[in-house]
Amino acid sequence: MSRMITVHLRYEIDADKIAEFREYGRRWIRLVDRLGGTHHGYFLPSEGDSDEAFALFTFPSLADYERYRLASTDDPECVEAYRYAVETKCIRRYERRFLAPVFE
């Protein structure tokens, strides 16, 4: 039995480039959904730390996530979204965690 997996990303972003990071997030929400996942959104700074953002997305299984990762390396829109982040330097670093979600 495969278990659903949620990916939690914690980003350290450039606080002066929140608009660029927002655009990066908008691109990836659609791409994750198109490549088999369910994106739960990006969460930008509001109060508190101004350089920390988060994202959550779920795949039916770890194997599905791995297929997404592989597909995203060759997908032109994914490559372009990654290039955008590199060029704008809106992301300083990120951490990825895998979680087992509990839904009703």
Automatic annotation (TrEMBL):
InterPro entries hit by this protein: Dimeric_a/b-barrel, NIPSNAP
The NIPSNAP domain, residue ranges: 10-102
Pfam families referenced in this protein's UniProt entry, alphabetically: NIPSNAP (PF07978)
Positions of transmembrane segments: none
Gene3D superfamilies reported for this sequence: 3.30.70.100
Protein name per Swiss-Prot or TrEMBL: NIPSNAP domain-containing protein
